[in-house]
Write a structure and sequence with these properties.
With 557 residues, the protein is α/β, with parallel strands linked by helices. It has 12 helices and 16 strands. The chain is elongated and about 85 Å long. It comes from Streptomyces purpurascens.
Amino acid sequence: MAIVFVLVALLVLAVIVTANWYVWRRLFRDTTRGPGLTRRAGAVLIAGGWALAIAALVAERSGAPFWLQQTLAWPGFLWLALSIYLLLAVVAGEVVRPLLRRFLERRDRTRAETGTAPTASTADQAHATATLDTDEGPNAPAAPGGAGAAGTAADPKAGVGAAAPGAAAAAAAQADPRGGAVASASAPASATAAGPQVGGGAGVPGGAADAGTVVDPQAGVVAAPGAATASPAAAAAQAGPRGGATASATRPHPRTDPTPDAPEATPQPLAPTTGTTPPTPTGPSRRLFVSRVVAGAAAAAAVGTVGYGTYGVLRGPKVKRVTVPLAKLPRAAHGFRIAVVSDIHLGPVLGRGFAQTVVDTINATQPDLIAVVGDLVDGSVKDLGPAAAPLAQLRARHGSYFVTGNHEYFSGAEQWVEEVRRLGLDPLENARRELPYFDLAGVNDIAGEDEGQGPDFARALGDRDTARACVLLAHQPVQIDDAVEHGVDLQLSGHTHGGQLWPGNLIASAANPTLAGLERYGDTQLYVSRGAGAWGPPTRVGAPSDITLIELASKQA
């Protein structure tokens, strides 16, 4: 048996660790470009949150100093709720993630297909020509032909680059390390850069340049394929001391004022004349963007859900009104009102102020009888006695009654029974009270069996008059079978919290015959309250807290 327990514990631990790693990955690793402070902070946040949650649970169960319980309870229990909804939100994000990615891809594809880049204007071409004119090297005579744009780079040992001039094409030359030069056709504007050893030059007539021609390594020329001059004019040539020549297209106006120490010109960047806008990159940038959007939405949804659920608890329970017909109820009792409150859970989070809110809400309904059906506290009388003090203000014509819940047996049930009696409530420990119109019975919670104080239906109901209607107070709905066996007309219970935190209702439904509300089992009806407070996280999602006002109806009325 011990081995099975250890294996189950290890399995649960593995599930929790895996789930938290998954949350950390989606919220922190996938939203950052690499290791850094954000990832480390995320790991500390998740690990620290769970450390606080475990410490809060241990402190409450072990009876640690109450100030320590209060210090740990708020952050620890809230992290429990937040971690649940972070996990659920991140899992839901897996559905949104591919949809968002497809949407972005489709949008970018549409933009790429319809968008075009602006073409070069006449002003741009004029600017390119002016740039060429100012960047010419020394001793460059005028060419008699039309204006073109060319850029060359001279070899330090007098290599030659030939460029094809023209208004619609430009040549960029790249020098060969051994002296050759390459000229290529390019954009409509460029600049000519002369090497430090370039001297004078001779003109090269305009026309189509032969592609792929390489001359002597000391003075060779490679002409770009398809290069052509814009007019039959010849380009100006510059000669180096080793006999190499550089051909360059110039404007038709000659320049005769040589500049001896002209610096090398910097080639200008070339812009495409026409084309389409390239598509947005579809690699890591898009994935990072999608991850951040989904993670941000998940975090916001989780925080919002927990925040609203916590506000609902702290605000206090709302009154729910339910009419229950009883066949044996006399006509005089028609409309008899019972205020049912369960699972208040006073403790390190919900204290005296919350108890006062519950008492005021109950008294406002002006009930004929008040039934507190277990789980009043999570702590000792020493720590929570002052918090429970407002219960002394409960007012009902036929009194206030109390039965134990499972949490009383974690907190000292005997002491709490005496405390509620001191506060004016009547504890029904496997006991019955014969009221004017029906019998009211109460049984201890199942958890009391470990202390020899379990439920005893025979003692509470065995010798009663079965002709009278009977209302039973029993904390857990699973006690309904015994109630049916003993001919109870109505059982009032709590314990389930309605699931408290969705989807916890699925687990609670599997463990209880009725999750919340009124149901019939043979001749016995069972009403289960969702409770006024909350255990652990002071948060409710999908299961709002309530105080139920049961109005009994006589079928004889």
